[in-house]
Amino acid sequence: MMVRFRNVLAAGVAALLGLAGADIPAPPAIAPDGIVNSASRLPATLRGGAIARGARFTIPGVRLGPDIGVRGSESDPPAKLADVSVRIAQRDAVADAGLLFVSATRIDAWMPETAPLGDVRLTVTYQGRTSEPYELTLVPSSTGFFSSETAPEALPAAKRKPEAAPGDTVTLWGTGLGEAALDLFVGGKPAEGVRATAAVCCKGVEQIEFRVPAGAPPGCFVPVQARTPDGRPSNAVPIAVHAPGQTCRDEVDWFRESVEHAARAGFVVLARVSLDIRLVPHSGSQFEFDYGVGSFGRQESGQRVFPPLPPPHTCTVFTARINLRQMMGQTRSPAEWTSIPQKTPGNRRLDAGSAVTVAGPSGAQALNRDARQHDYYDAFLGGQPPFSRQPAKPLYLRAGPYTVSAPGGADIGPFSLKLDVPRSIEWKNRARIAEVDRDAGVTVEWKAASGEDAVLILAANADRYSGDSAMCLCMAPARDGQFRIPPIALGNLPPTLEEDDLSASYLLLTEIPVHPPARIEARGLDAAFAAFVSASARLVKYK
């Protein structure tokens, strides 16, 4: 009897050990800081990234549902779909989200109006296994506009960029407005006759109609942005504004009309950069340096991507989860400069020879082929870059005439052209802007080299912990001499949290040509240019 008991006990222990070692499926896991408004995709740590009652939202992760995605009803999304459910809880108050789409890596859902406001815990359950709670803050209203990339398949109208003349009515589509009144701006000008109604096709989608105001700036990428009563700014989406019967036209259109659509294109840019980083502890504060870079390539996967510039007197906003800190860290090493921005997909290097030569009042220098980024020719020409261990050199790019030339290579013939380098832009009130109150806006003043040029103003910052980033890009005529960045354009920038948290907290001015710069004419090139740009930047603290 005792032997039998020992055998049974041993078998039980073995069974338990076997069970413990069995391949038990892991529960669903939601990506950290991953839940976003389905229309705007604004990172949740940004002011406009909060999820509202009645909004459509997206949950990324792993093991969230079936490997092959399943769609729910657009008009009446179910609380359970393909054995997936999403629950929102706040103590004893609970609500189940409506499910629009479920898969292993993504869930698109609708936040019910009965969900409790404030701090909640969201969980995903699939086949009886529940994820760890995801902490989320629900608000009454936080609007996101759909774009061609984010619009649902059931709403093809939201994938088209509207075109209109001043006085015309435009329709955009969004989610998260709730019952709040909406302040809406077209190129910084208040829109007229704003009206929002629920879309018939799709749960949680609002149809937002407005008239383009008479003072709206013309252009192909006029930014439209909204703001809720409690100050939460939406993402910015572009519309085309033009005179009746005409097509839209941008102020700086020479790049798009030539290089962007050329199969074989290139550039040489000479730059003077001035940087004030006096807020960084235990570091020098003033840096000024000259840099040259060139690149020639054949685009094999469609046209080159050119970031849309807003019209003069306006600002647009770009938000993303990108490693802006890493990019800013790369700027500390001149050897990394050619990797910013990243290589254009589908662009194959064209050989223009061993080096590009620049000759001017201070003599000649060579832009050699970069040892690691073979698509580029580049060189540090003079001055002192920040954080560099290279010894300081005399500044090279004095105002005057320059010759840019190359001997030619296997793909591109020899070329030589003249390039006039003017004086650099002077940021007149740079020393007085150490802090920027995002709710008040900020005015920058400058002295430009030419009144015919344009000045781009860039405000950028990244959240220290998540990497969530926002960049505000404004354009103004150089002759104006000043520009005020409005609060709505700065609203989604993360605040600068600490005195030593400044590695991605920048404000920058750069002068660019409005008219086409010097053309590079050579065998094997469809379009290419050489230009001088100057930039002045500083680290600031965003509050």
What can you see in these coordinates?
It is built from four helices and 40 strands. With 543 residues, the protein is mainly beta. It folds into three domains: 29-139, Immunoglobulins (Immunoglobulin-like); 144-241, Immunoglobulin-like (Sandwich); 254-542, no CATH class. Strands 22, 23, 24, 25, 26, 27, 28, 29, 30, 34, 35, 37, 38 and 39 form a 14-stranded mixed β-sheet that branches. Strands 1, 2, 4, 5, 8 and 9 form a six-stranded antiparallel β-sheet that branches. Strands 3, 6, 7, 10, 11 and 12 form a six-stranded mixed β-sheet that branches. A hairpin with a 2-residue loop joins strand 10 and strand 11. The protein is globular and about 75 Å long.
Low-confidence stretches: 1-22
Strand content: 35-45%
Q: In DSSP terms, counting alpha (H) and pi (I) runs of 4 or more, how many helices? A: 4
Estimated helix fraction: under 10%
User: How many individual domains?
Assistant: 3
Number of strands: 40
| Largest β-sheet summary | 14 strands, mixed
